[in-house]
C-alpha cells in the first residue's frame, strides 16, 4: 500500500472541503462570522488577511480544536462535525502549525508515533509504518534518519516530520499556518516543492501567509479574510493585481506599503569597531548616523542576528568594541545596553518576548516599567495606561482592551505588542531583528512609518531583514552579510535586488 494514495482529484473544480456559515465566538470577540469557503482537491488555496482576521481560528475549526457555534463542514459532500482533534485526524485533515508540536528530546521515529493511539499497532507494524512514511519523504526528496533526535534537525527538517505525520495518516486536507517564517530561503524552496508535489497527488492544500511573493509562487487561488469574514476568493493568482488584494485585506488601498521618506543623516551615533564573537567569521566594523535606517540583508545564518546580539551585550565579544556618540560603551549584558540607550527587538518574539497570561498592557509596559523603577520613579499608572492606548491605536493592535491576556491575541497582534514595548523605551539605537515577520501588510506600513519617525527624531535604526523588497524599500543604506562577515555596504540609490542577492549567496 502506498501511503500517498495517488487518487486523482474527484473533478477539476469540485470542492473537496466545503465550509458554510462557520461562526466562532470567544467572549467579546467574534473570530469567525459566517465564513464559507470551498477548497478543491489538487489545489493550493491561499488564505490571507490582517492580523486577527480569523485565519488561524479557521484552521482550528478544521483541526477540531475550536468548535463552531454555527455552520457546517462537508468533506466530499459528507457532513462532519469534529468534536475533538482525533475526529479531524480520522477524517483526513492535518494542520502544520507554525509552532511545531514535536518533542525535541525524542527521536524522529518517536515523534512520528506521537499522538497515535497506544497499542493500536504492534511494534513491528509501527516500525513498518515509520519506514513507509520516511520512504514517502525520501521520495519527496527528504532523507531523514528515524533514529536522529529531533533537536539535531533544522526547523525545516522538523517541519518535514510534521508533514510526514500527515502522510502517515493519509491526510487528504493539509493546512499550513505561516510555515516559512523561520525557514531559510533554501528550506522555503524545498517546502514549496513538496507542497506542490502533495497538491499534484490530489490533496487539498490550505496555505496561510502574509507574503504576496508566496501567493505568487505557490497558490492556485486565494481567499481574503477581514474581521472574521470571508471577503473575496480570487479564482486565479496569475496576473492578480496586488493593489486589489491589499485593498481586500485592509479595506482601503495602500499605494505604497513602504512609503519611504528620505531624510538627511546626522552625526555619527553608533560605531562597531572590529567586533568579533560567536557566529562571526571576521571582525565586523560599521557605523550608523543619527537619522539613519541601516538595513542588514543576508541569508538566514549569515551572522546578522549574532552581530545584533553582540551589540546588545547578549553574546560575549571576543574582540573589538562599540562606541556610542564617540564614547566606548560597556556591553556586558543587555541591561548595560538598555542603560546606554541600545535596545534589541529579537527575531523570535514569541519565545523570547511574551508572558502569555499577563495582559497586553503589562507586556507592553514591561521594560518601560523596569526603566522607571530603576530610575527611582514610582509607577505611573496613568502614564502607562495612556502609553498602552497610544500603541494599541497606532499599530491597530486588535485586542478588546489593554487588560486582555496577550495569549488570546492572534499571532501578529502579539508581535505588535512586543514591538511597541521597545518603542516605548527611551532608546537611541534600535536593533530590530525581522521587525515585520508575521505582521500584516496594513500594520507593516504603520511600523515603517514608526521607524521613519524614530529616524526623524535623530535615532538610529539597524534593521535585520530577509525580505529583500522591505530592505530596499525602507533602509537608507544596506549592509550585506555572508557567512559571518560583512561583504558590502550599499547606499539605497545603488541597491538592486540582483546585486544584493548576488552578494548574499555563499561562494
Ligand atoms: N482562545 C481565544 N480566546 C479569545 N480570543 C481569541 C482566541 N483565539 C483567537 N481569538 C481572537 O480571535 C480573533 C482571530 O484570531 P486568529 O488567531 O484567528 O487571527 P489570524 O487571522 O490568524 O491573525 P494573525 O495573522 O495575526 O495570525 C482575534 O481577535 C483573536 O484575539
Ligand atoms: Mg494566525
UniProtKB/TrEMBL annotation:
The keyword Lyase does not apply. Residues 17-252, 252-506 form the ABC transporter domain. It comes from the Bacteria. Pfam families: ABC_tran. GO terms for molecular function: ATP binding. Keywords: ATP-binding, Cell inner membrane, Cell membrane, Membrane, Nucleotide-binding, Repeat, Sugar transport, Translocase, Transport. InterPro entries: AAA+_ATPase, ABC_carbohydrate_import_ATPase, ABC_transporter-like_ATP-bd, ABC_transporter-like_CS, P-loop_NTPase. PROSITE patterns: ABC_TRANSPORTER_1, ABC_TRANSPORTER_2. This is Arabinose import ATP-binding protein AraG. It comes from Dyella flagellata. The lineage of its organism: Bacteria, Pseudomonadati, Pseudomonadota, Gammaproteobacteria, Lysobacterales. The gene is araG.
Amino acid at each position: 500500500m502506498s501511503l500517498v494514495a495517488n487518487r486523482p482529484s474527484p473533478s477539476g473544480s469540485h470542492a473537496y472541503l466545503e465550509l458554510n456559515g462557520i461562526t466562532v465566538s470567544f467572549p467579546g470577540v467574534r473570530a469567525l462570522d459566517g465564513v464559507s469557503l470551498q477548497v478543491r482537491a489538487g489545489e493550493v488555496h491561499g488564505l490571507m488577511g490582517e492580523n486577527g482576521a480569523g485565519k488561524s481560528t479557521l484552521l482550528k475549526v478544521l483541526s477540531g480544536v475550536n468548535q463552531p457555534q454555527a455552520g457546517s463542514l462537508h468533506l466530499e459532500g459528507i457532513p462532519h462535525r469534529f468534536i475533538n482533534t482525533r475526529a479531524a485526524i480520522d477524517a483526513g485533515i492535518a494542520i502544520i502549525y507554525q509552532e511545531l508540536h514535536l518533542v525535541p528530546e525524542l527521536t524522529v521515529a518517536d515523534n512520528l508515533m506521537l499522538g497515535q493511539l497506544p497499542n493500536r499497532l504492534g511494534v513491528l507494524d509501527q516500525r513498518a509504518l515509520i519506514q513507509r512514511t520516511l520512504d514517502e519523504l525520501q521520495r519527496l526528496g527528504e532523507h531523514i534518519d528515524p533514529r536522529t533526535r529531533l533537536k539535531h534537525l533544522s526547523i525545516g527538517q522538523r517541519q518535514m516530520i510534521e508533514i510526514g505525520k500527515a502522510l502517515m495518516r493519509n491526510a487528504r486536507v493539509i493546512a499550513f499556518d505561516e510555515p516559512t517564517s523561520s525557514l531559510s530561503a533554501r528550506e522555503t524552496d524545498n517546502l514549496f516543492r513538496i507542497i506542490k508535489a502533495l497538491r499534484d497527488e490530489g490533496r487539498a492544500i490550505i496555505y496561510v501567509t502574509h507574503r504576496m511573493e508566496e501567493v505568487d509562487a505557490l497558490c492556485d487561488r486565494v481567499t481574503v479574510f477581514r474581521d472574521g469574514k470571508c471577503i473575496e476568493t480570487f479564482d486565479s493568482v496569475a496576473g492578480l493585481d496586488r493593489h486589489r488584494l491589499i485593498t481586500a485585506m485592509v479595506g482601503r488601498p495602500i499605494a505604497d506599503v513602504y512609503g519611504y521618506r528620505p531624510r538627511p543623516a546626522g552625526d555619527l551615533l553608533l560605531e562597531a569597531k572590529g567586533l568579533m564573537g560567536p557566529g562571526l567569521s571576521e571582525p565586523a566594523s560599521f557605523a550608523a548616523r543619527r537619522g539613519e535606517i541601516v538595513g542588514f540583508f543576508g541569508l538566514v545564518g549569515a551572522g546578522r542576528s549574532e552581530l545584533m546580539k553582540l551589540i546588545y551585550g547578549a553574546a560575549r565579544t571576543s574582540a573589538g568594541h562599540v562606541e556610542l556618540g564617540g564614547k566606548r560603551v560597556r556591553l556586558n549584558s543587555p541591561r548595560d545596553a538598555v542603560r546606554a540607550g541600545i535596545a534589541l527587538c529579537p527575531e523570535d518574539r514569541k519565545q523570547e518576548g511574551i508572558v502569555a497570561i499577563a495582559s497586553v498592557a503589562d507586556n507592553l509596559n514591561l521594560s518601560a516599567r523596569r526603566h522607571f523603577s530603576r530610575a527611582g520613579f514610582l509607577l505611573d499608572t496613568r502614564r502607562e495606561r495612556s502609553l498602552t492606548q497610544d500603541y494599541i491605536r497606532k499599530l491597530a493592535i486588535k485586542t478588546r482592551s489593554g487588560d486582555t491576556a496577550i495569549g488570546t491575541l492572534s499571532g501578529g497582534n502579539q508581535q505588535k505588542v512586543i514591538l511597541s514595548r521597545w518603542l516605548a523605551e527611551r532608546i537611541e539605537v534600535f536593533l530590530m531583528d525581522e521587525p515585520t515577520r508575521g505582521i500584516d501588510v496594513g500594520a507593516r506600513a504603520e511600523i515603517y512609518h514608526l521607524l521613519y519617525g524614530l529616524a526623524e527624531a535623530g535615532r538610529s535604526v539597524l534593521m535585520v531583514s530577509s525580505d529583500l523588497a522591505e530592505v530596499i524599500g525602507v533602509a537608507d543604506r544596506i549592509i550585506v552579510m555572508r557567512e559571518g562577515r560583512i561583504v558590502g555596504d550599499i547606499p539605497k540609490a545603488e541597491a538592486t535586488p540582483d546585486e544584493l542577492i548576488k552578494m548574499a549567496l555563499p561562494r
